[in-house]
Amino acid sequence: MKFSFKNDYSEGCHPNILEALVRYNLIQQPGYSEDEYSLKAKKLIKEKIKNDTSEIYFISGGTQANLIVISSILKPYQCVISASTGHILNNETGAIEATGHKILSIETENGKLTPEDIVPVLENHTNIPHQVMPKLVYISNSTELGTIYHKNELEKLSRFCKENKLYLFMDGARLGHALTSEINDVSLEDIAKLTDIFYLGGTKNGALLGEAVIINNTNLQEDFAFNIKQKGALLAKGRVLGIQFLELMQNDLYFKLSENANLQAMKIKKALQKKNVEFLSETFTNQIFPILDHQLIDLLAEKFEFYIWKKIDHHSSAVRLITSWNTDDQATDSFIEIIDNQL
Amino acid sequence: MKFSFKNDYSEGCHPNILEALVRYNLIQQPGYSEDEYSLKAKKLIKEKIKNDTSEIYFISGGTQANLIVISSILKPYQCVISASTGHILNNETGAIEATGHKILSIETENGKLTPEDIVPVLENHTNIPHQVMPKLVYISNSTELGTIYHKNELEKLSRFCKENKLYLFMDGARLGHALTSEINDVSLEDIAKLTDIFYLGGTKNGALLGEAVIINNTNLQEDFAFNIKQKGALLAKGRVLGIQFLELMQNDLYFKLSENANLQAMKIKKALQKKNVEFLSETFTNQIFPILDHQLIDLLAEKFEFYIWKKIDHHSSAVRLITSWNTDDQATDSFIEIIDNQL
Amino acid sequence: MKFSFKNDYSEGCHPNILEALVRYNLIQQPGYSEDEYSLKAKKLIKEKIKNDTSEIYFISGGTQANLIVISSILKPYQCVISASTGHILNNETGAIEATGHKILSIETENGKLTPEDIVPVLENHTNIPHQVMPKLVYISNSTELGTIYHKNELEKLSRFCKENKLYLFMDGARLGHALTSEINDVSLEDIAKLTDIFYLGGTKNGALLGEAVIINNTNLQEDFAFNIKQKGALLAKGRVLGIQFLELMQNDLYFKLSENANLQAMKIKKALQKKNVEFLSETFTNQIFPILDHQLIDLLAEKFEFYIWKKIDHHSSAVRLITSWNTDDQATDSFIEIIDNQL
Amino acid sequence: MKFSFKNDYSEGCHPNILEALVRYNLIQQPGYSEDEYSLKAKKLIKEKIKNDTSEIYFISGGTQANLIVISSILKPYQCVISASTGHILNNETGAIEATGHKILSIETENGKLTPEDIVPVLENHTNIPHQVMPKLVYISNSTELGTIYHKNELEKLSRFCKENKLYLFMDGARLGHALTSEINDVSLEDIAKLTDIFYLGGTKNGALLGEAVIINNTNLQEDFAFNIKQKGALLAKGRVLGIQFLELMQNDLYFKLSENANLQAMKIKKALQKKNVEFLSETFTNQIFPILDHQLIDLLAEKFEFYIWKKIDHHSSAVRLITSWNTDDQATDSFIEIIDNQL
Prior knowledge:
4 copies of one chain form a homotetramer. In chain A, 41% of the residues lie in helices and 17% in strands. Chain A is α/β, with parallel strands linked by helices. The longest helix of chain A has 22 residues, at 253-274. Chain A is globular, with a radius of gyration of 21 Å.
């Protein structure tokens, strides 16, 4: 069996979660997220974000979270602004448009949006009522390119959105990896203050499934549960999501898991840098995009699975390596060994 | 703690499932239902329905299954026919209409649809193009009232649908309970022959979550996975669903679990019948609707949770009792003890 | 050629309208309802409803008006309440559901809704968030059965809606006929006060096409034009609608036209009543539903077109006769002549 | 009053149309496009396109036509490919996305799509089922930049679409102008052969309102009328559209009208070319985009209305001038006079 660096959802879940599922298994509980585990998990999250007025909802996956959030917030004629690399643009089978909303795409260098990126989009959408109305800014942290937002960047963007009556929504499928990156200066508390809505991704950080959607803007909280149910996303056994987030939040397991993923990716990164390998983008999370010679890629592919991300020239391509909460030294060391031998 | 007869999803899942989740937990697998457990589970289901041309997809819950199936099959102007008790009509927050499709409701005595029920609906929808076009017949087995379809009823309905170019879709959230009912004469194989599409419900029969959607009509199979993804229902860790159905299908665990649920409900039913208690409808599955005196209801409510379903007169109401895969003798015996003492 | 009593849109439009279209034809005007005729027509309507804060929009037809109004007002999980005879339920090819909203149908005797009809619907929709949320009450005046609302009925319904946070929307495809009925006691001003939104139908009252949507509730006015454009309903040559409503509003032509339609229907009604003919419902507008012997129906059908509405018994059926702004004495007299000769 | 070159829908309609509306006004006709004028107009169009198996439907406007066609043809997960200048992308308030379908945008030099443009889009959409499926190619002729497709270009594109199982849909809001352009080599017959579906625009070519949608691919014809009705686009008095297209088709009035519009635009173009004025794009239809000095623009703006299309540098901008079926020598001569005096 080859070891896979293709993504961070190749394994099951952290053993603590399975233990908790076993521990509580036969205790009867109310359905639809009214169980005591879900209630406790929500309480814990509120403590961590230090915002008692936020509302929290558990949803099975990222595409589901994105489509429910966006379709709940926007009026039919309002649209989303996203970096062209945004997960909602290219990787969700048009899930957002399927709810009726256009996404305006902005080219960026590193997957991050700035006020300067958004200004021309607003300027080009003033032909009322013949154009959609931009209303929600979608960002990912960490981004689909592995980069992260710094605190001053988020503050600027948040202020800009408020000034322009735009909602700021952060896709946090890999928020754990962003917040535990060695270059991060943002706290969970900051994010709860600076965004209208965001989510803490479980699926890509050690849960079997599940994202915790956190609505900070109280105007957007009303009746949100109706939207979850209507989209078929309200699990009868909501306990499955509640128990997982309870475990992840306790003792900061959530952050320890992403810390490990980041650490293992950075180990490979440093080994490659020592050999003067270049990267498609500079990242400090669990995604790295080294540019490798095709021969070396072929050799690595005999023992490892990963995506070839972008052809650079006749001799080399960028590959994408993703580490997970469960990637251990054995995997990364054997990868590095090949690098060290070959370069 | 009161024991709950409110529904069949109050507990977690059958222990075999948790053991399997632990067993396979750290083995890396491809995402999005391409894992080996999902593939094996699909193979097992195909063997059980004795139809190799059916396609099988795992989806998290019933509302999700209903909305994806219906919105995938129908053209925008086509609509659904359902008994007025249908789950899609009253218990899914308009999920079907939210995908653009009207549901025509038919009053029935027992939650089951017959060709005779449907004929007038077709006759009243001939003002082309000013009315929706009826195209899909939605039935539940067992129904929301606990009743089940007999083989000759299903055959008639299936033939009628074919003759009238209607699709027949069976909501099988409680299909296990129907097929293991003491009065059942239908096999899984029959259902695969007589319906265009149906599902095997896991959530209400011992799984943590999950329904297995089975598309028998090969014309309806094309590109179905796109629809699942677009509705946010394609789990990254599809293994979670695959492992569960693998366990449920092995050694017919699925049917043993619903058998227990039925058995426990029938035990209570017989105890009540001995005392000449009447029922709202005659059922042979895990849902019973006895009509009880309000004083007795109050007394039972001290030890048990259940829904008061329908007020009958000043003195009595029908209650709904649902047993599950995990309901044991202790629970039903203590319920029967009160009945025996009081009546 | 047979004379048609099938509907009130068999002819073109009142000659004044064509004259105005000719008169203004070659004058250049801005597009999209910014032309001076549209602005003047809106001003005139505001004067007539005596409410300067209402906003007015011209839309081509009734189904279009209904679907734009409803989909603009409601959030995805909110639904409509309508009498079972409502045009939106049976005659618009599921246009409302196609925008994502369920319609709850209420059986009525005469096509009119009362608070008493609505109370049980609200009581049956309290299982949050598993059911749609009733939010908008749709009524027609005159109704699809030709009946009309009296002032005290509208006042009660309006008060009830406000108390229950429901919007009241009046489909006025035949509002002219209601307001000029001999038994009417409601004014246009009353309607602007008692409803959140309503429309003045042009198509069934002497225009080529066009309905004037009037939004009285200022909370519902924001950005309405975006919805019109997004649904493809914003005519480039908005002047076509503006000129028509300008003509219809001037000198109360609108009401004179419906007065004629009502008068001609009442003439036939009285002739039939003299012969002791019974009616399916008692109406005082331009729709009548006499119950006639099949032989007589056949005889009338040789000279006139009309719909057979409902079979009553082996010998007789109710037919529907509709008169229009352009129906003249010659048509009704020749109809009455047959009646007089045969009965 | 300034003369407007802002668009081609500033005036009413060609007098012949009004005369016909008057002529047929009081003749009773069936509703919903079953009137004899609509039937005759459809027959005439079929003769002109020399294709008796095409089906024809009249719809009020371009956005309406685009959204009904696209939402009728595509399955939920299928998407549209369009040049970035496509009307559906920027000028229809997200009408297409509101029906659930994504539009993939392609940058072009001149508003026209080629197979070479489309190939990379197809190549980038192979990650099944995580991306939308490209299925319909939307083109405009003439384009939003005034350019037109040559026969060999259309043939190549049509062949490419067939080979790749893509539908080819031509927005013909200004098809008359394309077909009467001095450089055109395409016939109406060619278009009926090379596209799956297209429309003949009336609104921008002398009608009060109306587009004739022509479905050539017989697989796409089934039940189309349901879609029109469901979107609120089926006029009760369909005669209004039928009479207009009857007049436009008779004696080729339709083409004479666009010929005049083109002629007047070309007159201005030649006058500007004589003065060595440059243009944003080279066009031979009724839209021209000359690049003028700001001082001259200000001077012209005193007597004429037009859009400033794009700033070129500190001194000059491109303006858009559109002529119509009704633009006469007086208007263009007085424009040219200023040009001649100033340059």
